[in-house]
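TA notes, week 10

Several of you asked for a full example with nothing omitted. So below is the full record: structure tokens for the whole chain, then the designed sequence directly under it. When grading your own attempts, check the secondary structure regions first.
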């Protein structure tokens, strides 16, 4: 499915970027359906060895997906740390085991969500990095 084009030197190069643009154009996401489709394309590309064109496309698509999520799925300031983590888990369809793999302990996730304990600074840092959020959201 990749397109090819010829450079002046006569070398043919694979242009996966244009093939991906045809599959899903890079433009502002305006609906949940577009967001879901974009997320599916991201899932197809993540974890694969990509050429320069595919890598550039993925980078641009991630910016669009992130912008949509920041605007539509922002976590409110009025949520507690537990509520915020539960909302992130629900939105991203993650289990306690998934979060446990992020922070290094499934039991710590269970105890945090049940209110038995807080999260350590290293655990908060890992969650903030994973979800690209301010670590303050996981305090308290």
């Amino acid at each position: 499915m990749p397109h090819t084009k010829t450079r002046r030197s006569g070398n043919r190069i694979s242009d996966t970027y244009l093939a991906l643009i045809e599959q899903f154009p890079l433009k502002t996401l305006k609906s949940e359906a577009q967001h879901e489709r974009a997320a599916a394309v991201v899932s197809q590309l993540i974890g694969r060895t990509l050429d320069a064109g595919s890598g550039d496309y993925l980078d641009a698509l991630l910016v669009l997906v992130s912008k949509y999520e920041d605007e539509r799925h922002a976590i409110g300031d009025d949520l507690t740390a537990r509520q915020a983590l539960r909302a992130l888990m629900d939105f991203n369809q993650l289990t306690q085991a998934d979060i446990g793999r992020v922070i290094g302990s499934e039991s710590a996730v269970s105890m945090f969500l049940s209110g038995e304990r807080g999260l350590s600074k290293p655990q908060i840092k890992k969650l903030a990095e994973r979800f690209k959020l301010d670590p303050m959201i996981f305090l308290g």
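The beta strands are 3-6, 12-15. Use that as a sanity check on your answer.
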